[in-house]
């Protein structure tokens, strides 16, 4: 292959999946290059879960400082500086991008910081005009926010731009009620903004267990977030003072300083040359791949969000690792299992889940048992907060096997990661019952349900 192509592997997209695949393939001895048209690190590091989680941490202090007086602390003169938080988060993004670049360099991966387009089964053309050949091409370009077509959508922003706001808005309208929408609704609400969520259906966080969705809705409404359900954005206009008016079906216009559209993400395939190379594209714009992430063109693979199977960073990393081990390590690695994947929404409070929801379990298995613990966290009791946590176990009535765990409350994602191992391992309700509780903790509720 060394005499035939410039590289053994050429990766398009230096996000989590692409970087992992590049690094592992190079460790197996492959000659690897990666092209990235924007910034190394991809959605998660540059404009997604990492900077968003830092904003979540920053917004939590509003509640923590209010609660501190119940623990004997006198806090006065509280002020919040949005530019300081924003710039601190962006500096950390710069640090992480540098770390990703160093990882590629240390593993002797050549980096092209420019756009790449596939021109054939073994060739790509860079924006500079240079053509590079490779035995294998991997597409790992991720996904991109969807901006629906409506009048005035140029006045709106997506999750790409929200990290760069010049000032903290007083009034925020968010279109959508998925995890991105609900996370930013919690951030802005905690920072003192008036938040209105406009959603075309009457469901938040579609796909999560209904009891958790209802609990989050109750808590966030009590915190002051307003919801306009069964409504679609029709028009957004800019007023003379720079503010926005949001027009929806059947409602008076909503005044806003920013309108954040978070109505979904689609695979980022525009301009990649996939059609010219003969790569099959699915109905949702996704690259169609088999269980080994190979497209219908034998030399072209794809991993991560661009395949639109499960849009989660850890899944992209798993796929990238498995691809590199299989193709360049000649290893017989198992296919990525997409069933028992834990997930979390860093709303306020956060929720986390793994396995089947109650509805899914009843449809799949018929007879199931459901155990719940509805409790007020000790911290909330002492801080005189009425908010309650809710944990839920979904169990196969015939086998006693845990089919799903669903949690909402402080630190739910941190607790669920360990609990997800139990579900993945096929443990039973009896195994949970036999485990001694760790007291006092919220996590102990998982082993105390009867």
Query: CATH top level of the largest domain?
Result: Alpha Beta
CATH architecture of the largest domain: 3-Layer(bba) Sandwich
Principal-axis shape equals: globular
Going by CATH, what is the homologous superfamily of the largest domain?
A: FAD/NAD(P)-binding domain
Strand content: 15-25%
Taking pLDDT < 50 over at least 5 consecutive residues as the criterion, the unreliable ranges are none
Task: Give the number of domains.
Answer: 3
Characterise the protein shown here.
The protein has 12 helices and 21 strands. Strands 1, 2, 3, 4, 5, 6 and 16 form a 7-stranded mixed beta sheet that branches. Strands 17-18-21-20-19 form a 5-stranded antiparallel beta sheet, sandwiched between helices. The longest helix has 25 residues, at about 80-105. The chain folds into 3 domains: about 5-145 and about 265-325, FAD/NAD(P)-binding domain (3-Layer(bba) Sandwich); about 155-265, FAD/NAD(P)-binding domain (3-Layer(bba) Sandwich); about 350-445, Enolase-like, domain 1, CATH 3.30.390. The chain has about 450 residues and is an alpha/beta fold. It is globular. Helix 3 runs parallel beside helix 5 (about 180-190). It has helices at about 15-25, 40-45, 50-65, 80-105, 180-190, 210-220, 275, 315-325, 360-365, 380, 410-425, 430-435, and strands spanning about 5-10, 30-35, 110, 115-120, 125, 130-140, 145, 170-175, 195-200, 225-230, 235-240, 245-250, 255, 260, 265, 300, 345, 350-355, 370-375, 390-395, 400-410.
């Amino acid at each position: 292959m060394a005499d035939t192509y410039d590289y053994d592997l050429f990766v398009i997209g230096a996000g989590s999946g692409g970087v992992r695949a590049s690094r592992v393939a190079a460790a197996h001895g492959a000659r690897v290059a990666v092209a990235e048209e924007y910034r190394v690190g991809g959605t998660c590091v540059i404009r997604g879960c990492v900077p968003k989680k830092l904003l979540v941490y920053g917004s939590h202090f509003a509640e923590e400082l209010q609660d501190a007086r119940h623990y004997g602390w006198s806090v006065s003169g509280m002020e919040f500086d949005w530019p300081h938080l924003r710039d601190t988060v962006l500096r950390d993004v710069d640090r992480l991008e540098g770390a990703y670049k160093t990882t590629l360099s240390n593993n002797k991966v050549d980096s092209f910081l420019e756009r790449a387009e596939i021109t054939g089964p073994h060739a790509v053309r860079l924006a500079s005009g240079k053509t590079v050949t490779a035995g294998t091409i991997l597409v790992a370009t991720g996904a991109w926010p969807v901006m629906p077509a409506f009048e005035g959508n140029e006045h709106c922003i997506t999750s790409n731009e929200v990290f760069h706001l010049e000032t903290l808005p007083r009034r925020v309208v968010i279109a959508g009620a998925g995890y991105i929408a609900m996370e930013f609704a919690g951030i802005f609400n905690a920072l003192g903004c008036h938040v209105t969520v406009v959603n075309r259906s009457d469901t938040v966080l579609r796909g999560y267990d209904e009891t958790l969705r209802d609990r989050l809705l109750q808590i966030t409404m009590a915190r002051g977030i307003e919801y306009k359900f069964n409504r679609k954005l029709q028009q957004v206009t800019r007023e003379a003072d720079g503010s926005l008016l949001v027009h929806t079906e059947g409602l008076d216009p909503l005044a806003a300083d920013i309108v954040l559209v978070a109505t979904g993400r689609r695979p980022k395939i525009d301009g990649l040359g996939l059609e010219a190379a003969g790569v099959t594209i699915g109905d949702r714009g996704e690259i169609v791949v088999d269980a080994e992430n190979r497209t219908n063109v034998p030399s072209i693979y794809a991993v991560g969000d661009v395949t639109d199977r499960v849009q989660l960073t850890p899944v992209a990393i798993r796929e990238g690792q498995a691809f590199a081990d299989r193709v360049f390590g000649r290893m017989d690695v198992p296919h990525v299992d997409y069933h028992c994947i834990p997930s979390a929404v860093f709303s306020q409070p956060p929720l986390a889940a793994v396995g089947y929801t109650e509805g899914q379990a009843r449809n799949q298995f018929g007879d199931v048992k459901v155990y719940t613990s509805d409790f007020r966290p000790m911290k909330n009791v002492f801080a005189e907060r009425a908010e309650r946590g809710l944990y839920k176990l979904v169990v196969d009535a015939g086998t006693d096997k845990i089919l799903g765990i669903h949690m909402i409350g402080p630190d739910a994602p941190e607790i669920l990661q360990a609990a997800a191992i139990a579900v993945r391992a096929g443990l039973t309700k009896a195994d949970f019952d036999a485990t001694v509780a760790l007291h006092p903790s919220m996590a102990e509720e998982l082993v105390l349900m009867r």
